[in-house]
Write a structure and sequence with these properties.
Layout lengths: L14 E3 L5 E4 L3 E9 L5 E10 L4 E2 L15 E3 L5 E7 L8 E7 L10 E10 L11 E7 L6 E4 L4 E2 L2 E3 L1 E7 L5 E4 L3 E3 L7 E8 L10 E5 L11 E4 L2 E4 L10 E10 L4 E11 L7 E4 L17 E4 L4
Parallel strand pairs: 1-13, 2-14, 16-22
Antiparallel strand pairs: 1-3, 3-9, 4-8, 4-10, 4-11, 5-9, 6-9, 7-8, 10-14, 11-12, 15-17, 17-20, 18-21, 19-20, 21-22, 23-24
Length: about 300
């Protein structure tokens, strides 16, 4: 039997807790789950507990020990060096895979401080990761067999509590759309003129504050990428467009979020036809015979006009 995440706590008892706040794992391979210790005015010099975690979604590296201190790298302790931790792991112990204890090997009168006692580092199975913003809930619970134990600086056992939690994990959500404020540009504008501003649809934009970069990429609809550039989130021309020569351009844009998630979209940029002034005026005949009656034809005018 495991303690639930809403265990009632007797006032004044020392306590171990796990926060149920959402953890932003995003695209990281691991995340940290801290265990908080509260003495409630007791002078606690030793304690032990067995922690059960969701093995369907989480992994725990109990082997890697870079500094050879007997404590796996996946266990981060946060107490005075006089205290000695002990960690063992049994994947088959479904009531509490991680057994943890700490005691003071130097001074029996030195007590543990309130705050984060120890942090466990867990990996996440790919099957539990999401890319659409859906949270994955994982359960942490303290075993009741054995129950958590607390000992004070006099060596006496002290009743205490341990409260597990259901913890939501957030992973990076890929962007799902790209918008462009304007998809038409006037002809004859100088190279480097602004077409419009790009933006992304991404559920991570507000929490935890994802950002996006934009680029022109190869793929379907990329035929005219060379006629444009992107500066920040601004699409700009890379040529002077002439409606009479070409009326529309096809480009392909990718948005990439700050965690590597990407989305691509093809856009058609149309060229606006502007009224252009004639560039030439000519007269078919520039002389006339004398004595011609009023109204006699001298010649015909003609113009060269880009819009004609």
């Amino acid at each position: 039997m495991l303690f639930s995440s809403n265990v009632l706590r007797a006032a004044g008892d020392p306590a171990l807790t796990i926060s149920d706040s959402t953890i932003n794992v995003m695209n990281s391979s691991t995340f940290q789950a801290p265990i908080t210790f509260t003495s409630n005015s007791h002078e606690i010099a030793s304690l032990s507990f067995s922690l059960d975690f969701d093995q369907g979604c989480l992994t725990f590296d109990s082997v890697t020990d870079s500094n050879g201190d007997g404590v796996p790298d996946s266990v981060i302790t946060n107490f005075h060096a006089n205290f000695t931790p002990s960690v063992s792991y049994d994947a088959d112990d479904t009531t509490g895979e991680i057994d943890f204890s700490v005691s003071n090997a130097v001074s029996t009168t030195q007590a543990l401080s309130d705050g984060t006692l120890v942090t466990f580092v867990f990996g996440v199975e790919n099957s539990c990761r999401t890319t659409d913003g859906t949270l994955t809930n994982v359960v942490f619970a303290f075993s009741s067999n054995p129950t958590p134990s607390f000992g004070d600086t006099s060596g006496s056992a002290v009743p205490g509590t341990a409260t597990g939690a259901t913890v939501p994990l957030r992973f990076n959500a890929n962007p799902t759309d790209i918008a462009l404020t304007e998809t038409a540009v006037d002809e004859n504008l100088a190279k480097g003129s602004t077409v419009g501003t790009l933006s992304s649809t991404d559920v991570d934009t507000s929490d935890p504050g994802d950002t996006h970069t934009y680029s022109l990429v190869s793929g379907d609809g990329d035929g005219d990428n060379g006629s444009f550039t992107i500066s920040g989130a601004t699409l700009k021309t890379n040529a002077v467009f002439d409606y009479e020569t070409k009326t529309s351009y096809a480009i392909r844009v990718r948005t990439t979020d700050s965690y590597g998630g990407a989305f691509e979209k093809q856009f058609t940029i149309t060229v606006n036809d502007l009224n252009e002034a004639p560039t030439s005026l000519s007269l078919s005949n520039s002389s006339v015979d004398e004595n011609q009656a009023s109204g006699a034809v001298v010649g015909s005018f003609s113009s060269i006009d880009p819009d004609a």
